[in-house]
Amino acid sequence: MTNGQTFPQTRTLTLLAIVQVIGGIGNGAGLAVGVLLLKDVSGSEAIAGTATVMLTLGAALATMPLVRLAVRAGRRPALTVGWVLGGLGAGLVVAGAEFEQTVMVMAGLLMFGCSTAANLQSRFAAVDRAAPNQIGRSLSIVMWSTTVGAVAGPNLIDVGAAVADRLSLPDLAGPMVFSTVGFLLAGLITWIGLRPEPLELSEPDAGKARPGIRAALPHLHGPVLTAVVTVAGSHAVMVGVMSLTPVHMENHGAALKVIGLTISLHIAGMFALSPLFGWLSDRLGARPVILGGQVTLIAAVAIAGTAGHSDVQITIGLILLGIGWSASVIAAAALLTASLDPADRPTVQGVSDLAMSLAGASGGLLAGVLMAWSGFGLLSAVAGTITIPVMALVLIGRRVSRELAAG
Fold first, then answer.
1. Whole-model pTM above 0.70?
2. Nearest to 41 by CA among 87, 103, 107
3. 160-177 confidence digits (pLDDT tens)
4. CA of 106: how far to CAs of 29, 41, 112, 161, 175, in Å?
5. CB 334 within 8 A of CB 303
Protein backbone atom coordinates (compact mmCIF):
# COMPACT_ATOMS: atom_id res chain seq x y z
CA MET A 1 0.00 0.00 0.00
CA THR A 2 1.39 3.38 -0.96
CA ASN A 3 1.72 6.27 1.46
CA GLY A 4 -1.12 8.03 -0.37
CA GLN A 5 -3.39 5.09 0.35
CA THR A 6 -2.48 4.65 4.01
CA PHE A 7 -4.50 7.52 5.46
CA PRO A 8 -7.74 6.81 3.54
CA GLN A 9 -7.54 3.14 4.55
CA THR A 10 -6.96 4.01 8.21
CA ARG A 11 -9.81 6.51 8.14
CA THR A 12 -12.12 3.94 6.52
CA LEU A 13 -11.30 1.26 9.09
CA THR A 14 -11.82 3.70 11.97
CA LEU A 15 -15.18 4.91 10.68
CA LEU A 16 -16.42 1.39 9.94
CA ALA A 17 -15.29 0.24 13.39
CA ILE A 18 -17.29 3.02 15.09
CA VAL A 19 -20.39 2.21 13.04
CA GLN A 20 -20.06 -1.50 13.85
CA VAL A 21 -20.04 -0.73 17.58
CA ILE A 22 -23.25 1.29 17.31
CA GLY A 23 -24.97 -1.06 14.88
CA GLY A 24 -23.81 -4.04 16.94
CA ILE A 25 -25.89 -2.84 19.89
CA GLY A 26 -28.95 -2.93 17.67
CA ASN A 27 -28.16 -6.35 16.25
CA GLY A 28 -27.36 -7.84 19.65
CA ALA A 29 -30.54 -6.51 21.22
CA GLY A 30 -32.65 -7.78 18.33
CA LEU A 31 -31.09 -11.24 18.31
CA ALA A 32 -31.69 -11.64 22.03
CA VAL A 33 -35.41 -10.84 22.04
CA GLY A 34 -36.62 -11.38 18.47
CA VAL A 35 -37.57 -15.03 18.97
CA LEU A 36 -39.11 -14.44 22.40
CA LEU A 37 -41.05 -11.38 21.25
CA LEU A 38 -42.52 -13.24 18.27
CA LYS A 39 -43.41 -16.15 20.55
CA ASP A 40 -45.29 -13.81 22.90
CA VAL A 41 -47.17 -12.04 20.11
CA SER A 42 -48.04 -15.17 18.11
CA GLY A 43 -48.48 -17.56 21.03
CA SER A 44 -46.72 -20.26 19.01
CA GLU A 45 -43.28 -21.79 19.54
CA ALA A 46 -43.21 -22.98 15.92
CA ILE A 47 -43.84 -19.46 14.63
CA ALA A 48 -41.23 -18.13 17.06
CA GLY A 49 -38.57 -20.11 15.21
CA THR A 50 -39.29 -18.07 12.08
CA ALA A 51 -37.95 -14.91 13.74
CA THR A 52 -34.38 -15.76 12.78
CA VAL A 53 -35.63 -16.91 9.37
CA MET A 54 -37.13 -13.46 8.81
CA LEU A 55 -33.92 -11.74 9.92
CA THR A 56 -31.68 -13.82 7.65
CA LEU A 57 -34.15 -13.79 4.74
CA GLY A 58 -34.30 -10.01 5.01
CA ALA A 59 -30.53 -9.88 4.77
CA ALA A 60 -30.65 -12.17 1.73
CA LEU A 61 -33.24 -10.05 -0.06
CA ALA A 62 -31.26 -6.86 0.61
CA THR A 63 -27.83 -8.20 -0.36
CA MET A 64 -27.77 -7.96 -4.15
CA PRO A 65 -29.69 -4.65 -4.36
CA LEU A 66 -27.13 -3.15 -1.95
CA VAL A 67 -24.29 -4.62 -4.02
CA ARG A 68 -25.72 -3.04 -7.17
CA LEU A 69 -26.04 0.27 -5.38
CA ALA A 70 -22.47 0.00 -4.10
CA VAL A 71 -21.06 -0.73 -7.57
CA ARG A 72 -22.98 2.14 -9.15
CA ALA A 73 -22.87 4.76 -6.40
CA GLY A 74 -20.31 3.55 -3.84
CA ARG A 75 -20.16 1.78 -0.50
CA ARG A 76 -21.30 4.90 1.41
CA PRO A 77 -24.87 5.12 0.04
CA ALA A 78 -25.27 1.33 0.00
CA LEU A 79 -24.31 0.88 3.64
CA THR A 80 -26.38 3.90 4.67
CA VAL A 81 -29.50 2.49 3.01
CA GLY A 82 -28.96 -0.88 4.68
CA TRP A 83 -28.69 0.61 8.16
CA VAL A 84 -31.66 2.96 7.71
CA LEU A 85 -33.93 0.18 6.42
CA GLY A 86 -32.89 -1.93 9.39
CA GLY A 87 -33.83 0.90 11.73
CA LEU A 88 -37.24 1.27 10.13
CA GLY A 89 -37.73 -2.49 10.45
CA ALA A 90 -36.90 -2.44 14.15
CA GLY A 91 -39.43 0.36 14.59
CA LEU A 92 -42.05 -1.75 12.81
CA VAL A 93 -41.32 -4.63 15.22
CA VAL A 94 -41.99 -2.29 18.14
CA ALA A 95 -45.30 -1.26 16.59
CA GLY A 96 -46.22 -4.90 15.96
CA ALA A 97 -45.51 -5.79 19.58
CA GLU A 98 -47.63 -2.89 20.81
CA PHE A 99 -50.61 -3.83 18.64
CA GLU A 100 -50.00 -7.61 19.00
CA GLN A 101 -49.84 -8.10 15.24
CA THR A 102 -47.80 -11.17 14.29
CA VAL A 103 -47.59 -10.24 10.60
CA MET A 104 -46.34 -6.76 11.47
CA VAL A 105 -43.63 -8.17 13.74
CA MET A 106 -42.51 -10.62 11.04
CA ALA A 107 -42.44 -7.87 8.40
CA GLY A 108 -40.40 -5.71 10.76
CA LEU A 109 -37.93 -8.53 11.36
CA LEU A 110 -37.61 -8.96 7.59
CA MET A 111 -36.65 -5.29 7.23
CA PHE A 112 -34.46 -5.57 10.35
CA GLY A 113 -32.37 -8.03 8.33
CA CYS A 114 -31.23 -5.19 6.05
CA SER A 115 -28.96 -4.09 8.90
CA THR A 116 -27.30 -7.52 8.76
CA ALA A 117 -26.64 -7.05 5.06
CA ALA A 118 -25.02 -3.69 5.82
CA ASN A 119 -23.03 -5.25 8.63
CA LEU A 120 -21.71 -8.01 6.34
CA GLN A 121 -20.83 -5.68 3.49
CA SER A 122 -18.93 -3.42 5.87
CA ARG A 123 -16.24 -6.07 6.24
CA PHE A 124 -15.66 -6.04 2.48
CA ALA A 125 -15.63 -2.24 2.44
CA ALA A 126 -12.73 -2.58 4.86
CA VAL A 127 -10.62 -4.42 2.27
CA ASP A 128 -11.41 -2.35 -0.83
CA ARG A 129 -8.05 -0.62 -0.33
CA ALA A 130 -6.24 -3.15 1.85
CA ALA A 131 -2.81 -4.47 0.89
CA PRO A 132 -2.86 -8.16 -0.18
CA ASN A 133 -1.02 -9.27 2.96
CA GLN A 134 -3.44 -7.41 5.23
CA ILE A 135 -6.80 -8.61 3.90
CA GLY A 136 -7.49 -10.94 6.83
CA ARG A 137 -6.51 -8.35 9.41
CA SER A 138 -8.58 -5.57 7.82
CA LEU A 139 -11.62 -7.85 7.71
CA SER A 140 -11.14 -8.91 11.29
CA ILE A 141 -10.72 -5.37 12.68
CA VAL A 142 -14.17 -4.38 11.44
CA MET A 143 -15.70 -7.66 12.62
CA TRP A 144 -14.04 -7.34 16.03
CA SER A 145 -15.50 -3.86 16.46
CA THR A 146 -18.94 -5.45 16.46
CA THR A 147 -18.05 -7.14 19.76
CA VAL A 148 -18.65 -4.15 22.01
CA GLY A 149 -22.13 -3.39 20.80
CA ALA A 150 -23.18 -6.95 20.06
CA VAL A 151 -22.21 -8.18 23.53
CA ALA A 152 -23.85 -5.21 25.23
CA GLY A 153 -27.07 -5.55 23.25
CA PRO A 154 -28.42 -8.80 24.76
CA ASN A 155 -27.61 -7.55 28.26
CA LEU A 156 -29.88 -4.55 27.76
CA ILE A 157 -33.01 -6.67 28.18
CA ASP A 158 -33.70 -5.36 31.70
CA VAL A 159 -32.85 -1.77 30.73
CA GLY A 160 -35.01 -2.18 27.65
CA ALA A 161 -37.89 -3.39 29.80
CA ALA A 162 -37.59 -0.24 31.91
CA VAL A 163 -37.60 1.93 28.78
CA ALA A 164 -40.58 -0.01 27.45
CA ASP A 165 -42.42 0.57 30.72
CA ARG A 166 -41.86 4.34 30.45
CA LEU A 167 -43.10 4.26 26.85
CA SER A 168 -46.05 1.99 27.77
CA LEU A 169 -44.76 -0.77 25.49
CA PRO A 170 -44.45 -4.53 26.07
CA ASP A 171 -41.24 -5.37 27.98
CA LEU A 172 -39.59 -7.24 25.10
CA ALA A 173 -40.16 -4.30 22.74
CA GLY A 174 -37.72 -2.19 24.78
CA PRO A 175 -34.51 -3.63 23.27
CA MET A 176 -36.00 -3.11 19.81
CA VAL A 177 -36.20 0.61 20.60
CA PHE A 178 -32.42 0.51 21.09
CA SER A 179 -32.12 -1.29 17.73
CA THR A 180 -34.14 1.41 16.00
CA VAL A 181 -32.01 4.23 17.37
CA GLY A 182 -28.74 2.34 16.87
CA PHE A 183 -29.36 1.49 13.22
CA LEU A 184 -30.53 4.98 12.27
CA LEU A 185 -27.50 6.50 14.00
CA ALA A 186 -25.19 4.02 12.23
CA GLY A 187 -26.71 5.07 8.90
CA LEU A 188 -26.27 8.76 9.67
CA ILE A 189 -22.62 8.37 10.68
CA THR A 190 -21.89 6.28 7.59
CA TRP A 191 -23.43 8.87 5.28
CA ILE A 192 -21.58 11.76 6.87
CA GLY A 193 -18.24 10.13 7.64
CA LEU A 194 -17.39 7.40 5.12
CA ARG A 195 -15.22 9.61 2.98
CA PRO A 196 -13.30 9.15 0.76
CA GLU A 197 -15.42 6.48 -0.90
CA PRO A 198 -13.61 3.12 -0.43
CA LEU A 199 -14.86 1.35 -3.55
CA GLU A 200 -14.48 4.34 -5.82
CA LEU A 201 -10.88 4.75 -4.73
CA SER A 202 -9.98 1.12 -5.36
CA GLU A 203 -12.11 0.69 -8.50
CA PRO A 204 -12.53 3.92 -10.47
CA ASP A 205 -14.40 2.06 -13.25
CA ALA A 206 -16.67 0.10 -10.92
CA GLY A 207 -19.69 2.12 -12.06
CA LYS A 208 -19.43 0.48 -15.50
CA ALA A 209 -19.89 -3.01 -14.05
CA ARG A 210 -23.19 -4.85 -14.15
CA PRO A 211 -23.34 -6.82 -10.93
CA GLY A 212 -25.60 -9.82 -10.59
CA ILE A 213 -25.66 -13.50 -9.77
CA ARG A 214 -24.99 -14.50 -13.39
CA ALA A 215 -21.87 -12.35 -13.47
CA ALA A 216 -20.56 -14.20 -10.41
CA LEU A 217 -21.21 -17.75 -11.62
CA PRO A 218 -18.05 -18.10 -13.78
CA HIS A 219 -15.95 -17.42 -10.68
CA LEU A 220 -17.58 -20.07 -8.47
CA HIS A 221 -14.94 -22.77 -8.66
CA GLY A 222 -11.76 -23.71 -6.85
CA PRO A 223 -10.96 -21.60 -3.78
CA VAL A 224 -13.86 -19.21 -4.45
CA LEU A 225 -16.37 -22.08 -4.32
CA THR A 226 -14.70 -23.40 -1.17
CA ALA A 227 -15.02 -19.98 0.44
CA VAL A 228 -18.70 -19.56 -0.46
CA VAL A 229 -19.64 -23.05 0.76
CA THR A 230 -17.68 -22.48 3.97
CA VAL A 231 -19.45 -19.21 4.71
CA ALA A 232 -22.89 -20.64 3.92
CA GLY A 233 -22.39 -23.90 5.80
CA SER A 234 -20.87 -22.31 8.89
CA HIS A 235 -23.64 -19.73 9.07
CA ALA A 236 -26.31 -22.42 8.74
CA VAL A 237 -24.81 -24.34 11.68
CA MET A 238 -24.54 -21.24 13.83
CA VAL A 239 -27.99 -19.82 13.09
CA GLY A 240 -29.71 -23.20 13.36
CA VAL A 241 -28.43 -23.84 16.89
CA MET A 242 -28.36 -20.26 18.18
CA SER A 243 -31.84 -19.30 16.98
CA LEU A 244 -33.67 -21.84 19.15
CA THR A 245 -31.35 -21.68 22.17
CA PRO A 246 -33.41 -18.90 23.89
CA VAL A 247 -36.59 -20.96 23.46
CA HIS A 248 -34.87 -24.13 24.71
CA MET A 249 -33.55 -22.30 27.77
CA GLU A 250 -36.84 -20.58 28.49
CA ASN A 251 -38.66 -23.92 28.26
CA HIS A 252 -36.61 -25.34 31.12
CA GLY A 253 -37.04 -22.25 33.27
CA ALA A 254 -33.94 -20.15 32.60
CA ALA A 255 -34.29 -16.49 33.59
CA LEU A 256 -34.20 -13.76 30.94
CA LYS A 257 -30.94 -12.49 32.44
CA VAL A 258 -29.33 -15.90 31.96
CA ILE A 259 -30.61 -16.16 28.40
CA GLY A 260 -29.30 -12.67 27.63
CA LEU A 261 -25.89 -13.52 29.13
CA THR A 262 -25.68 -16.75 27.11
CA ILE A 263 -26.43 -14.98 23.84
CA SER A 264 -24.02 -12.13 24.63
CA LEU A 265 -21.21 -14.61 25.38
CA HIS A 266 -22.05 -16.42 22.15
CA ILE A 267 -21.76 -13.14 20.25
CA ALA A 268 -18.49 -12.41 22.05
CA GLY A 269 -17.26 -15.75 20.73
CA MET A 270 -18.30 -14.68 17.24
CA PHE A 271 -16.28 -11.47 17.24
CA ALA A 272 -13.81 -11.13 20.13
CA LEU A 273 -11.11 -13.33 18.57
CA SER A 274 -11.54 -11.92 15.07
CA PRO A 275 -8.09 -10.23 14.97
CA LEU A 276 -6.44 -13.54 15.87
CA PHE A 277 -8.20 -15.40 13.07
CA GLY A 278 -7.48 -12.60 10.62
CA TRP A 279 -3.79 -12.69 11.51
CA LEU A 280 -3.69 -16.48 11.26
CA SER A 281 -5.37 -16.37 7.85
CA ASP A 282 -2.73 -13.93 6.57
CA ARG A 283 0.11 -15.87 8.19
CA LEU A 284 -0.83 -19.55 7.73
CA GLY A 285 -3.32 -19.34 4.90
CA ALA A 286 -7.09 -19.55 5.04
CA ARG A 287 -7.63 -23.30 4.72
CA PRO A 288 -6.03 -24.40 8.04
CA VAL A 289 -8.06 -21.75 9.87
CA ILE A 290 -11.27 -22.94 8.19
CA LEU A 291 -10.57 -26.53 9.24
CA GLY A 292 -9.97 -25.40 12.82
CA GLY A 293 -13.25 -23.51 12.73
CA GLN A 294 -15.18 -26.55 11.51
CA VAL A 295 -13.74 -28.78 14.23
CA THR A 296 -14.75 -26.16 16.79
CA LEU A 297 -18.30 -26.11 15.40
CA ILE A 298 -18.53 -29.89 15.81
CA ALA A 299 -17.39 -29.61 19.42
CA ALA A 300 -19.91 -26.81 20.00
CA VAL A 301 -22.98 -28.69 18.79
CA ALA A 302 -21.90 -31.80 20.70
CA ILE A 303 -21.59 -29.87 23.98
CA ALA A 304 -24.75 -27.79 23.54
CA GLY A 305 -26.82 -30.69 22.25
CA THR A 306 -26.04 -32.90 25.23
CA ALA A 307 -26.41 -30.15 27.86
CA GLY A 308 -29.97 -30.97 28.85
CA HIS A 309 -31.02 -28.35 31.42
CA SER A 310 -27.47 -27.28 32.27
CA ASP A 311 -27.25 -23.55 31.52
CA VAL A 312 -23.49 -23.61 32.03
CA GLN A 313 -22.93 -26.37 29.48
CA ILE A 314 -25.26 -24.71 26.98
CA THR A 315 -23.35 -21.45 27.41
CA ILE A 316 -20.01 -23.19 26.82
CA GLY A 317 -21.41 -24.77 23.67
CA LEU A 318 -22.72 -21.41 22.43
CA ILE A 319 -19.35 -19.73 23.05
CA LEU A 320 -17.60 -22.42 20.99
CA LEU A 321 -20.29 -22.08 18.34
CA GLY A 322 -19.41 -18.40 18.00
CA ILE A 323 -15.66 -19.09 17.90
CA GLY A 324 -16.02 -21.76 15.22
CA TRP A 325 -18.19 -19.47 13.15
CA SER A 326 -15.70 -16.62 13.49
CA ALA A 327 -12.67 -18.64 12.39
CA SER A 328 -14.53 -20.13 9.43
CA VAL A 329 -16.18 -16.95 8.16
CA ILE A 330 -13.14 -14.68 8.49
CA ALA A 331 -10.81 -17.17 6.82
CA ALA A 332 -13.33 -17.88 4.05
CA ALA A 333 -13.87 -14.15 3.38
CA ALA A 334 -10.09 -13.65 3.18
CA LEU A 335 -9.76 -16.62 0.81
CA LEU A 336 -12.58 -15.28 -1.37
CA THR A 337 -11.12 -11.77 -1.56
CA ALA A 338 -7.57 -12.93 -2.25
CA SER A 339 -8.75 -15.29 -5.02
CA LEU A 340 -10.50 -12.60 -7.09
CA ASP A 341 -9.44 -9.68 -9.23
CA PRO A 342 -10.49 -6.37 -7.62
CA ALA A 343 -12.99 -5.64 -10.40
CA ASP A 344 -14.84 -8.91 -9.72
CA ARG A 345 -14.86 -8.71 -5.94
CA PRO A 346 -18.02 -6.71 -5.15
CA THR A 347 -20.33 -8.95 -7.18
CA VAL A 348 -18.90 -12.27 -5.97
CA GLN A 349 -18.71 -10.98 -2.40
CA GLY A 350 -22.38 -10.09 -2.69
CA VAL A 351 -23.25 -13.59 -3.90
CA SER A 352 -21.28 -14.99 -0.96
CA ASP A 353 -23.31 -12.86 1.45
CA LEU A 354 -26.50 -13.92 -0.33
CA ALA A 355 -25.59 -17.60 0.07
CA MET A 356 -24.74 -16.94 3.71
CA SER A 357 -28.09 -15.32 4.43
CA LEU A 358 -30.11 -17.94 2.57
CA ALA A 359 -28.26 -20.70 4.39
CA GLY A 360 -28.98 -18.99 7.69
CA ALA A 361 -32.67 -18.66 6.83
CA SER A 362 -32.83 -22.33 5.86
CA GLY A 363 -30.98 -23.33 9.02
CA GLY A 364 -33.35 -21.31 11.19
CA LEU A 365 -36.43 -22.76 9.46
CA LEU A 366 -35.17 -26.34 9.76
CA ALA A 367 -34.23 -25.70 13.38
CA GLY A 368 -37.80 -24.74 14.22
CA VAL A 369 -39.13 -27.93 12.63
CA LEU A 370 -36.56 -30.17 14.35
CA MET A 371 -37.08 -28.46 17.69
CA ALA A 372 -40.84 -28.97 17.53
CA TRP A 373 -40.45 -32.56 16.35
CA SER A 374 -37.75 -33.97 18.59
CA GLY A 375 -36.01 -31.29 20.62
CA PHE A 376 -32.74 -29.42 20.91
CA GLY A 377 -30.52 -32.53 20.89
CA LEU A 378 -31.53 -33.67 17.40
CA LEU A 379 -31.36 -30.11 16.15
CA SER A 380 -27.72 -29.87 17.29
CA ALA A 381 -26.81 -33.25 15.79
CA VAL A 382 -28.24 -32.39 12.38
CA ALA A 383 -26.47 -29.03 12.43
CA GLY A 384 -23.15 -30.78 13.01
CA THR A 385 -23.46 -32.78 9.78
CA ILE A 386 -23.30 -29.57 7.73
CA THR A 387 -19.57 -29.34 8.46
CA ILE A 388 -18.87 -32.49 6.40
CA PRO A 389 -19.07 -31.00 2.87
CA VAL A 390 -17.17 -27.92 4.02
CA MET A 391 -14.24 -29.95 5.34
CA ALA A 392 -14.27 -32.14 2.23
CA LEU A 393 -13.94 -29.12 -0.06
CA VAL A 394 -11.17 -27.60 2.05
CA LEU A 395 -9.16 -30.84 2.12
CA ILE A 396 -9.58 -31.35 -1.63
CA GLY A 397 -8.48 -27.76 -2.21
CA ARG A 398 -5.39 -28.22 -0.04
CA ARG A 399 -4.41 -31.34 -1.99
CA VAL A 400 -4.90 -29.62 -5.34
CA SER A 401 -2.84 -26.62 -4.18
CA ARG A 402 0.00 -28.86 -3.08
CA GLU A 403 -0.04 -30.75 -6.38
CA LEU A 404 0.04 -27.49 -8.33
CA ALA A 405 2.89 -26.21 -6.16
CA ALA A 406 4.78 -29.43 -6.84
CA GLY A 407 4.40 -28.86 -10.57
1. yes
2. 103
3. 889 999 999 999 899 999
4. 16, 10, 10, 21, 16
5. no
